[in-house]
Specification:
single chain, two-stranded parallel sheet
């Protein structure tokens, strides 16, 4: 059972939420919150330790404190939050390598929990309807956060071979959203006009930020379960999401989607990569049987409820767009004629 827990990334939104939630568990004797900058939010009764997981000093912190459980939440999804793609990759990949090296040398570490991502499955037209944990991607992520997540998981698997005595749980989350968290997907659906690959209507699954923390808590204090997909029930399509946030859509040919993504990214409105454009075209589905049957986790929020909780915080940017929300939702199957009727009503 976890007694002394080290949590990485506590100065970020999810890390702070988790530290506060963990603080409520009386069975946890001590919590060490590690990050390179002091948190601006409460981290409960966690002791903040200013340290960089890319530095071998993290090993000394573990040894001095007798850490038995490491919760690695500092795998960063958006380069905007770190000052650029280069720093993001260093933190995600080099930081994870150093953290695992420290865990390998530690005599006290008994459990490792890693926040991973469904981005490891990639997105392609050859994908299965639902990815289970034992499936490999049809097209490997080639850039950005998805590629980082694949490398991080590879290092964790290597660590598990070297330290078979350490219990390991990796949670592959669908896109985490909510009213307070900012990610590439929330930035995308907050755009005044949502560009979508023409002729496609990808399916999405979401995880509410509160459910993500509850799942990490269970992975920390419950049984070790290996790799588990985590997603809310149900699906939403791109067009349905756009209707719920009351945004008009702009169909863009796939040949130009990369250019549009680059322009949006440079504008500072949202982060885009080639893999994110593929995700917007082809989507992704996660099989969550292991989440329920092995991890024993039941999300409180469905995919639709999660997105609605996020959408409530956004204002419409087009006058009268609420009137066309139902039509846009019906157009989720997406024919050109249906899209034309939607835009005619928006302009009237």
């Amino acid at each position: 059972m976890a007694k002394v827990v080290l949590v990485t990334g506590v100065s970020r939104h999810l890390g702070g939420l988790f530290a506060r939630r963990l603080s409520l568990d009386p069975s946890i004797e001590r919590i060490l919150g590690v990050d390179v900058v002091p948190p601006r939010h409460s981290i409960g009764r966690a002791d903040f330790v200013r340290a960089d997981i890319r530095n071998p000093m993290i090993g000394r912190i573990m040894a001095q404190s007798g850490v038995d459980t490491v919760v690695h939440l500092n795998v960063i999804a958006t380069p905007r939050d770190t000052g650029g793609r280069g720093t993001q990759k260093e933190i995600n990949v080099i930081g994870t390598m150093q953290l695992l090296a420290a865990c390998q040398k530690s005599e006290s570490v008994q459990r490792l929990v890693v926040k991973s991502s469904a981005a490891v499955y990639g997105s392609s037209p050859r994908d299965p309807a639902m990815f289970s944990e034992d499936m490999n991607p049809k097209s490997m992520p080639r850039t950005g956060f998805g590629k980082d997540s694949v490398e991080v998981e590879g290092y964790v698997r290597g660590f598990s071979r070297r330290r078979p005595d350490v219990e390991i749980t990796m949670l592959r989350f669908a896109n985490i959203i909510g009213p307070n968290i900012r990610t590439a997907i929330t930035d995308y659906f907050a755009l005044p006009v949502v560009p979508v690959p023409a002729g496609f209507d990808a399916r999405f699954q979401f995880v509410h930020e509160e459910d993500s923390i509850a799942a990490v808590m269970l992975a920390t204090t419950g049984p070790s379960v290996g790799i588990v997909n985590v997603a809310g029930d149900g699906f939403l399509t791109v067009n349905q999401c756009a209707a719920l946030v009351r945004r008009p859509i702009l169909p863009v040919p796939m040949s130009a989607a990369g250019l549009i993504g680059t322009m949006v990214k440079r504008s500072g409105l949202a982060d885009f990569s080639a893999d994110q454009v593929s995700f917007l075209a082809f989507g992704r589905g996660l099989d969550t049987h292991r989440m329920r049957e092995v991890l024993g986790f039941e999300p409180r929020w469905t995919t639709r409820e999660t997105f609605l909780d996020f959408a409530r915080g956004l204002r419409p940017v087009v006058p009268g767009v609420d009137a066309v929300g139902g039509v846009v939702t019906e157009a989720a199957g997406g024919t050109a004629a249906a899209l034309g009727r939607v835009f005619e009503r928006i302009q009237s």
